[in-house]
C-alpha cells in the first residue's frame, strides 16, 4: 500500500512539474507579480519526459490497483474484503489521475485566464502606424504568449500584438504618436521574459 501511495505522489508531482512553466504566468497574473514568470522556463525542454513519466507512473499505479490478486486460501477466522482507506481507493486514484490530466493539458487552455485586451484604436494618420518585431527569450507555451499580449495591449495606441513562443518573438503594430518602442519593450520585460532584439518592419 505504501508503494501505491508513493506511485500516486510521484505521478502527481511529475504532472505538476510538467506544467509548472505554463502555470506560473497565470499565477503571476492573479497575484500581480509578473516578474517571476520566467523562473520555471528552464523546465520546458524536459516537459515531454515529465509527461511520459507521469503517464507511466499513473498507468503502473492503475495496473497495481486493478490487477487480479490471486485468491489465498484462508481459514474462516481471516478477514475478507477489508475496506481500504480513502487514499488507497480507486476513487482517490481516479481523482489524482483527473487532476494530473488537467495539469498536463493546462498549456492548451491557459489563454482563458487572460482578459481580451483588444480595443478599437482610431488612426488619424496612417504614416504614424509602425510595426516592430521584438525577439523575446523565455517564452515556452501559449500561456506565455497570452501574458505578453495582455501586457502590451494595456498600452495606449497598440493596434495589435501577436506573440509567438515558437518564433520567440512578438510583432506589435502601434501608433507612434501614442506609444513607442521603449514603452512596448518595457511592458514585455515586465512579464519576466526579456526582449533581446528588436527590428522595425
Question: Care to describe what's here?
Answer:
- By secondary structure, the protein is an alpha+beta fold.
- The chain has 2 domains: 90 residues; 87 residues, Alpha-Beta Plaits (2-Layer Sandwich).
- Helix content is 44%, strand content 15%.
- It has a 4-stranded antiparallel sheet.
- A hairpin with a 4-residue loop joins strand 2 and strand 3.
- Helix 1 packs parallel to helix 3.
- The longest helix has 30 residues.
- The radius of gyration is 24 Å and the shape is elongated.
- It starts with a helix and ends with a strand.
- About 3% of the residues have low confidence.
Briefly summarize what is shown:
This protein is an alpha+beta fold and 201 residues long.
The strands making up the biggest β-sheet line up spatially as: 2-3-1-4
> Ends: how far apart?
62 Å
* Biggest sheet details: 4 strands, antiparallel
Structural class: alpha+beta
Radius of gyration: 24 Å
User: What is the count of β-strands?
Assistant: 4
Summed up, the helix count is: 6
Binned, the helix content reads 40-55%
